[in-house]
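forwarding from the other thread:

> can someone predict this with adenosine-5'-triphosphate?

sure thing
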Amino acid sequence: MARVICITSGKGGVGKTTVTANLGTALALSGSSVCLIDADFGLRNLDIPLGLSNRVRYHISDFLTGQCALHQVIVKDKRISTLSFISCSNDAVHHDDPQVFGEVVQQIAQGYDYVLIDSPAGIENGFWNAALAADEAIVVTTPHRTSLQDADRVIGLLEDMIPAPPQLIINMADGQEARSATVKMQDIIDILNIGVIGVIHADVEIIRSVHKGIPIALNPEFESGLRFRHIAHNVAKNQQEPFISLKPKRHISVFSLPPRLRWGKNSSL
Ligand SMILES: Nc1ncnc2c1ncn2[C@@H]1O[C@H](COP(=O)(O)OP(=O)(O)OP(=O)(O)O)[C@@H](O)[C@H]1O
Ligand SMILES: [Mg+2]
């Protein structure tokens, strides 16, 4: 039976999907069997960083409406034989019953070592679906005050729902960002007061990897790839060693680029 872990945050756009794709990839690379579930009914996008968009034929909603068998919703990654992916839905149907969702997750969990559930932003139905189906939770935050505030709220909710203490990943951490806009690492740890299992910098290579559909965790040449592998090691060992010392071969901070190149429609990355 798998460890079922939901990846959540409260605030949108902080990196839940990126973490799910890369942590799942790193766990699978280490030999564990992993199933990633995109629980964002209606706005699914976990298929993109995984590069599996063209392979999704059925969703959990199709299984729930009797249009396919459960095994048909499972997409197997061709690069890593131990990695699978499941999309919930293209539309917002069947998102309002956490018990039904939880039962499906339990069935899926029987075939894997890990099931990672990518939670949607906010604390509406999608969040409850993901959290109530999980035995463990990883909260993703950036060092921005709004993200921390939402993370704090979500941690309070998770602590009432899941016996295991939630763990924290600090994403888009970067010393070069305007100091006034972000909270220092030690202050984040003090404010949220939960175990930190990893710190990922704001990294252009992560944006590139999402565009290519190749999880950066596949590539140990990149610092962020190694950092995701380190987080996977922490998860597998149930340990909290957030920091690793690295001499990166390639790490270009997004904040060292002009704004038009960072992200968005006009980005040339
Ligand atoms: N460490 C990082 N460095 C640079 N860009 C990043 C990093 N992490 C995530 N991103 C980028 O930030 C954007 C938002 O990331 P992502 O989709 O993973 O967030 P999310 O929390 O899942 O969002 P949502 O709440 O909408 O589901 C994406 O374009 C992603 O490529
Ligand atoms: Mg997401």
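The CA atoms of residues 10 and 122 lie 5 Å apart. thats all i got for now
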